[in-house]
Amino acid sequence: MLTAYAAPPWLPGGHLQTIWPALWPRPSELPVQYRRTRWTTPDGDFIDVDHLDDPTHSAKDQPLLVLFHGLEGNSSSQYALAFADYARHAGWTFTVPHFRGCSGEINLAPRAYHSGDHEEIDWILRRLRAAHSGPLVAIGVSLGGNALVRWAQEAGNSALKVVSAIAAISSPLDLAAGGWALGRGFNRWVYTRMFLQSMKPKALLKLQQHPGLFDPLALTQAQDLYAFDNVFTAPLHGFKSTDDYWARASAKPHLQRLCVPTLLLHARNDPFVPAWSLPTAQETSRHVTLWQPLQGGHVGFPASTGTARETYLPQAVGAWLNGHIA
Fold first, then answer.
1. Could you say which of 103, 142, 170, 277 is catalytic?
2. Domain range for residue 187?
3. What is the pLDDT of residues 59-109, one digit of tens each?
4. What's the structural domain count of the chain?
5. For site-directed labelling of 317, which of 4, 127, 204, 289 has its Cα 20 to 30 A away?
6. Is residue 53 part of a domain?
């Protein structure tokens, strides 16, 4: 059962509830240590996969929590560390597969990652499933959540052979609505600028690997995600344009296809995901749980005390997942 959420009174509004946990996360009682493995992808590229390095929580019959990070995230993102800490206390194993180019080293192939990368999710989860005998649950954060839900939609009934349940946190299930929100006002000048500061240099490194892959001038002139995706993300991943990419990769139109227990968590004051774009119960299958508290921001949900700022999110989502493991 999901618990009610109310933001601290000293953190009003979606922006503060987004920024505070990201900039000032609560330190773990014990530092999170990862063990990294490198996997060869089906197309001959590689990804790096980080596993919680804790001998007491590594048995193959324990529950495994897999986290797919958000745009330009990684295993050191504050939400990943918070869920790693939760998994450690719950006695679960924990793994963060990095999307291509997000582990600190540029990948090799003439591609990166995108919001609808369900084929990538598929082979990752199936490889983890084959190596693990215990229950497996997966979380996707923001971009990673949309990709995870798209995987479950494409997998249909076969998803139940891989995972017990999935959760998407603050995910732009309607990519056009999310792109619209991030292209305006404060969002454009703060969040979008932050994303492009890391995305543009990585794209230019990709151009050094594969000369002629895209127009470098058009990329450097991109001032929002729509323009960046039109130059880089869409053509590199088989889409005609940003509009084609956002339409085909969005999970919202296909929510009635979900056959696996799915939690969709969105704060209605999320600066990245407009409340008017959130799914309704009529748009989903009976396997979907919608949780749309009024407050929380984007992957924020700060707890009410300054000593436990980001613990609410992993505890609430973890409890929901645990119910489906049981």
1. 142
2. 175-249
3. 778 999 999 999 999 999 999 999 999 999 999 999 999 999 999 999 999
4. 2
5. 127
6. yes
